[in-house]
Amino acid sequence: METSELLVEVRDLSTRFSSGGREVRAVEGVNLRIAQGQSVGIVGESGSGKTVTARSIMRLIESPGEIVGGEIRFRGCDLLKASESEMCHIRGKEIAMIFQDPVASLNPMSPVGKQMIEGPRWHLNLSKARARERAVQFLGDAQVPFPQDIMRAYPHQLSGGMCQRASIAMALSCEPALIIGDECTSALDATIQVQVLSLLREVRQRFGTAILLISHDLAVVARVCEYVVVMYAGQVVEEGLTSVVLTTPKHPYTQGLIGCIPKIEHRGRLPAAIEGEPPRADRPNSGCAFAPRCPKAMAACTQEPPPWREVAAGHFTRCVLTA
Predict the structure, then answer these.
(1) Strand order in the sheet with 65-74
(2) What is the pTM of this model?
(3) What are 56-103's pLDDT values in tens digits?
(4) Residue ranges per domain, the chain?
(5) Do 139 and 151 contact (CB within 8 A), yes or no?
(6) 255 in Cβ contact with 290 (< 8 Å)
(7) 112-123 and 128-141 are packed helices; what angle lies between their axes, rounded to 10 degrees?
(8) How far is it, in rounded angstroms, from Cα 189 to Cα 258?
(9) What is the second-level CATH architecture of the domain 3-36+45-82+228-322?
């Protein structure tokens, strides 16, 4: 990937939360690169640092949380050095976010249309009438039927799938370079989920928008993303092309996640589960964080952090077994 093609480059990002004298290392030394128009997925169990990474990119970490180290470069500029005023112009216009609960992410006291025109009026300096026309256009692009009626509706009058389409239309309304979807299909039923994922693929193809999709569901990422990053205990443990990582996973944790997926040939049997619990983020581990749960763990796994290695062209992992 050429540097000129890079849209986002995260370097050694560390985000921590302090409470009651304890320090929780939610994200530790994360590196992430997203090219223009690329679709990247971040997967892992709950608490692995996926959402904190996404919110760190948006600079939406609130007290007692703090980004304590690293760089977040967007179009070459470090967002961690940007003022809050500058970030207000970037959020929505350059980077937009679709949240997990489509109903809760919308203001229940305001019609959908009123919420949709705020971004274009603020960021693009459009008149109310022109912003409204634009909102109707993007609702149509998001496959929302009868967009004029939806503009007048309140969020509680719409289904979850319709609210999520409206959220996607809202994210698109200023034509951002990057859309971050934070578990944006997990609250939807299977049929609507497929429709929303198809819409995200179409958005990328039509507008050239880069997508960062946060999910615990490998099947969801496989549908949309060409590149996948696997996180565990606040660290990236494996990454590469989605087709490569999901068919030839090298890290035992990635192998465990894939083993948890039900398969038709295993009918009548429960899927394999990863034994144990994720480590506490307020108790740093001197070795591999996954070692206590890993069926392949050796003495070396508990002595020092595992190396980050390229095991094949463009396929990286953090495990002593690849040394």
Answers:
(1) 22-35, 6-19, 65-74, 77-78
(2) 0.91
(3) 999 999 999 999 999 999 999 999 999 999 999 999 999 999 988 877
(4) 3-36+45-82+228-322
(5) yes
(6) no
(7) 110
(8) 22
(9) 3-Layer(aba) Sandwich (3.40)
